[in-house]
């Protein structure tokens, strides 16, 4: 019996020691303690200089992790394990996070820089009174194209993508809502449509697009289009801006049938362990000079009215990325379609991608 007790005691001591070593390692790498902030954001979606500046001004160490889709972000937060202090979901994912009680309400008294945000981008349907979120960037979904390689194709309509002259010369961003929505819009349906007959029509029309599709890709779509590996691509507006910076031959358009008006938003997940640091970070990102620097670096449109005033005229005055109301009035925000319908969208999109092989 004594030997058994000694064995258990040894195991306990070793385990306790290993836990201590692990805690020390985590602490030395900035993964624990009250002076850290864990940010969960899209890739290439913040100016790294701003993270360094925030750390220098506050003494708070930023642990920065990235995701490549709202669905991946939602899964990670739902599963727990990592206590993200700040996350950046799109509007429909934000609505789902609210529904599933995954967010902490914001204390606006700790966010005085919220006053710099244009009122047009506050109190929107997916988060009334901005109870859980502040807008980070906004933009559209449209078509980047090379006028020299697409002569005779009219991209004022989504139907231009089906032109036979684009055979094996079109790139699509890898997003179910974006591509299913584009097809629905081309049929003059809402990109939030849940009618099964309409969704099937959208899939059938996408399958007819297959001969023109060179690939469905992720972040590499920017490099491929800039290098003229394809004549056109369906992309988010911020990616379009970056692509056009690299190749000034290219242009961007939102077709007349309408498209998506999207918002990415800063939130504090319910599992956050450094809420005070999260508030300081959000308020920092709302500073006009910070928001302007970030918008210029990332290429997406800022909702910060005072930051927009600090941007160069060739950016703030570009109607392709800050479109007038006659264009934005035709655009739709993604609704939270619910888990079952979202899975159906993903299934239809997968069927389309399988049809390409």
UniProtKB/TrEMBL annotation:
Entry's transmembrane regions: 7-25
Pfam family, one: SBP_bac_8
Keywords annotated in UniProt: Membrane, Periplasm, Signal, Transmembrane, Transmembrane helix, Transport
Subcellular location: Periplasm
Major site of localization recorded for this protein: periplasm
UniProt entry tagged with the keyword Ion transport: no
Official protein name in the record: ABC transporter substrate-binding protein
Organism: Paenibacillus ottowii
